């Protein structure tokens, strides 16, 4: 029995790398539920908003009537957003060309593809203190968003080159990068053990 | 040398991961790109002509004009892909310089090199390549492709070739996982790929890069069948802008791709779409005009 086997975590699956998150949940022994329709939110304890295209997620959230229930869920339960998921959890997108309506759960502003287009995507090590002293984690920044403003209630968990890249506010957590592309589950476990499930 | 743990390769495959569950649409103008984005496309492919027009008009098909690509990059926030001719590494270099997000080394354009594909490892921008079977898939991945897609038969609106290619790859993958060491050697030899790579794929039971469907997808049900047969996202070429109602068809194919395993949603998406692209049956095309054998 894993210490997470009592948890069922939803993964928003309108589009994006939801399979990677689902795979990591499997690795740590938690159950998962893909969320594509409102009733998929019914029996889950937490939610992951994956990477992908926030423009597409935004459209599909409205098209399948997820906006209201998703916002309610994110206000009450633990959520973790990566890349596009961070954009969706943010309060505001600067220069919001595609008119993406964010869920406004974490008091940060972001710029989409703030580190540049794919040619400038990169992987680097970040230094994170997840409660056991500093650890080095491989972080992939893929057309990643850049945080440009951070509210008083928001805690910066990890900073990289003078920008917050992993932030927390109450039960919500968001990262600009991907840690789910390989089998390293430390950040997922940090989310699962620190968010008051 | 093949190194799937290379950081640059990881972020290339990473972008392919981010496109999963989505639809990549061929567009030839900024206006079409906007329609695609508003319908929910997760990326667009910037082209001079859609495959059905290339087929109808003939002539040499080449990389798109940089101005066209720039114009499309300006109008959308989603990734922009573009095609280069098979083996034409200078076109690929140009596309990288233009900072397109993905390069499709495509059989839809007139092949530039009869013998070699582009050596894709040194590029910082990821490549997608078409394939008909496991051997082609393994060769393209060995050359550095970060995503593979079925070739299907582009510009026809006939899904049969894409289905054949998905099934071929699916069956061959299954067979690989139960093969003995000498059989794996046979696969490596027959397909001209390294035994280490074949062993790795056999052991994990899956390809090390995402596998998308392309070539002939024209309806929501076409997208659904490809996803159900193991494709992880779909490319739609002529199917959208050759139909009588592109906005509707684009939206419907996106809905059917996300909800591919929910037949009632696919059914709703299929309603009242107007005339789909007329299309052409693959079996009626003369052999020299077939694209997937390129």
Give an overview of the whole structure.
The complex is a heterodimer of chains A (197) and B (294). With 197 residues, chain A is α/β, with parallel strands linked by helices. Chain A is built from five helices and twelve strands. Chain A has a seven-stranded mixed sheet with strand order 2-1-3-4-12-11-10, with helices on both faces. Chain B has helices spanning 7-18, 30-39, 51-57, 66-75, 89-97, 134-142, 160-177, 181-191, 195-204, 220-228, 238-241, 246-258, 263-270, and strands at residues 23-27, 43-46, 80-85, 102-106, 127-131, 147-150, 211-212, 234-236. In chain B, strand 5, helix 6 and strand 6 form a beta-alpha-beta unit. Chain B is α/β, with parallel strands linked by helices. The chains are: A alpha/beta (197), B alpha/beta (294).
Task: Summarize the entry for a quick read.
The complex is a heterodimer of chains A (197) and B (294). By secondary structure, chain A is an alpha/beta fold.
Percentage of helical residues of chain A? 10-25%
Strand fraction of chain A: 25-35%
User: SSE order of chain B in H/E notation?
Assistant: HEHEHHEHEEHEHHHEHEHHH
Content of β-strand of chain B:
5-15%
Biggest sheet strand order of chain B reads 7-6-5-4-3-2-1-8
Structural class of chain A: alpha/beta
- Anisotropy-based shape of chain B: globular
Average pLDDT figure of chain A: 96
Report on the biggest sheet of chain A. 7 strands, mixed
Going by helix content, strand content and strand pairing, the class of chain B is alpha/beta
Overall 3D geometry of chain A?
globular
Write the topology of this structure.
The complex is a heterodimer of chains A (197) and B (294).
Chain A: E1 8-12, H1 18-28, E2 31-35, E3 46-49, H2 54-63, H3 67-76, E4 79-82, H4 84-89, E5 90-93, E6 106-111, E7 122-129, E8 134-141, E9 146-150, E10 155-160, E11 163-169, E12 172-175, H5 186-194
Chain B: H1 7-18, E1 23-27, H2 30-39, E2 43-46, H3 51-57, H4 66-75, E3 80-85, H5 89-97, E4 102-106, E5 127-131, H6 134-142, E6 147-150, H7 160-177, H8 181-191, H9 195-204, E7 211-212, H10 220-228, E8 234-236, H11 238-241, H12 246-258, H13 263-270
Parallel strand pairs in B: 1-2, 1-8, 2-3, 3-4, 4-5, 5-6, 6-7
Helix pairs in contact in B: 2-4, 2-12, 8-9, 10-12, 12-13
């Amino acid at each position: 029995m894993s210490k997470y086997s009592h948890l069922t975590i939803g993964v928003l699956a309108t589009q994006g790398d939801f399979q990677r998150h689902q795979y990591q949940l499997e690795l740590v022994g938690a159950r998962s539920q893909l969320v594509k329709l409102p009733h998929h939110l019914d029996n889950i304890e937490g939610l992951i908003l994956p990477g992908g295209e926030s423009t597409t997620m935004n459209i599909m959230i409205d098209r399948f009537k997820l906006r209201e229930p998703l916002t309610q869920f994110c206000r009450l339960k633990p959520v973790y957003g990566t890349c596009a998921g961070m954009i969706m959890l943010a309060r505001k997108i600067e220069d919001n060309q595609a008119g993406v309506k964010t869920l406004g759960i974490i008091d940060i502003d972001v710029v989409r593809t703030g580190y540049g287009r794919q040619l400038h995507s990169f992987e680097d090590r970040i230094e994170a203190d997840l409660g056991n002293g500093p650890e080095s984690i491989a972080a992939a920044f893929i057309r990643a968003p850049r945080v440009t403003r951070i509210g008083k209630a928001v805690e910066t968990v990890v900073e990289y080159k003078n920008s917050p890249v992993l932030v927390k506010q109450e039960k919500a957590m968001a990262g600009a990068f991907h840690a789910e592309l390989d089998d390293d589950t430390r950040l997922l476990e940090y989310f699962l053990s620190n968010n008051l499930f | 040398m093949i190194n799937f743990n290379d950081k640059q390769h990881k972020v290339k495959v990473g972008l392919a991961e981010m496109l999963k569950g989505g639809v990549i649409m061929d567009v030839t103008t900024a206006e079409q790109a906007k329609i695609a984005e508003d319908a929910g496309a997760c990326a667009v492919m910037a082209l001079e002509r859609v495959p059905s027009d290339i087929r109808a008009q003939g002539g040499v098909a080449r990389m798109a004009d940089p101005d066209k690509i720039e114009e499309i990059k300006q109008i959308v926030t989603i990734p922009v892909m573009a095609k280069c001719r098979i083996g034409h590494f200078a076109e690929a270099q140009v596309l990288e310089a233009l900072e397109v997000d993905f390069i499709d080394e495509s059989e839809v354009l007139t092949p530039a090199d009869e013998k070699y594909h582009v050596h894709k490892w040194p590029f910082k921008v990821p490549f997608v390549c078409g394939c008909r079977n496991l051997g082609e898939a393994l060769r393209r991945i060995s050359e550095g492709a970060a995503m593979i897609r079925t070739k299907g038969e582009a510009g026809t609106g006939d899904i049969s070739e894409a289905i054949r290619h998905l099934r071929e790859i699916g069956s061959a993958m299954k067979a690989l996982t139960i093969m003995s060491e000498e059989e794996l050697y046979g696969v490596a030899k027959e397909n001209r790929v390294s035994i280490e790579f074949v062993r790795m794929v056999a052991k994990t039971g899956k390809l090390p890069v995402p596998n998308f469907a392309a070539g002939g997808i024209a309806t929501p049900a076409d997208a659904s069948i490809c996803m159900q047969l193991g494709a992880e996202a779909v490319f739609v070429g002529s199917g959208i802008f050759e139909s009588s109602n592109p906005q509707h068809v684009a939206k419907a194919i996106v809905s059917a791709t996300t909800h591919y395993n929910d037949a009632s949603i696919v059914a709703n998406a299929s309603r009242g779409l107007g005339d789909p692209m007329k299309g052409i049956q693959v079996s009626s095309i003369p052999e020299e005009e077939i694209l997937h054998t390129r």
